[in-house]
Specification:
With 129 residues, the chain is mainly α. The chain is built from five helices and no strands. The termini are far apart. One of its GO terms (molecular function) is DNA binding.
Length: 129
């Protein structure tokens, strides 16, 4: 909270300097908005740097969900949310891959595993009679 207040104060000072130099005025709301954006950008930059460090520590060049989960481990609710969303995305991706497989098999005239099984059963039935 003290850091946020310090950012707000500094942004206010900078805005006053700009007001004097450029003959413009900043409202209190605009100074507050600039302060909030500045603070969030700093937090985001720090978070991204931390995730990058975790990735490098694992000797990888690609940041993955495990790096983000590791960073979020201090907040159980955030970790739970990230894990839930990650699982949802993974299952959605699997479903899409299955649909693409079936679609490409059908386009090539191939039978799906269920259709192959039905055909084998049909052949066995006709051989018995």
């Amino acid at each position: 909270q003290r850091l946020k207040a310090a950012v707000h104060y500094t942004v206010g000072c900078l805005c006053r300097e700009v007001e004097e130099d450029k003959d413009v005025q900043f409202s209190k709301q605009s100074i507050a908005a600039i302060s909030e954006i500045t603070f969030r950008q700093c937090v985001l930059a720090n978070t991204l740097r931390s995730v990058f460090v975790l990735c490098r520590h694992a000797k990888r060049s690609t940041i993955n969900t495990e790096d983000v989960k590791l960073l979020a481990r201090r907040s159980s609710s955030l970790l739970k949310y990230i894990t839930q969303k990650s699982d949802e995305l993974a299952s959605s991706n699997m479903e899409q891959k299955e649909k693409k497989k079936k679609k490409s098999s059908a386009a090539k005239g191939e039978r799906t595993p269920g259709e192959k099984e039905a055909a084998v059963t049909e052949n066995e039935d006709s051989n018995m009679s």
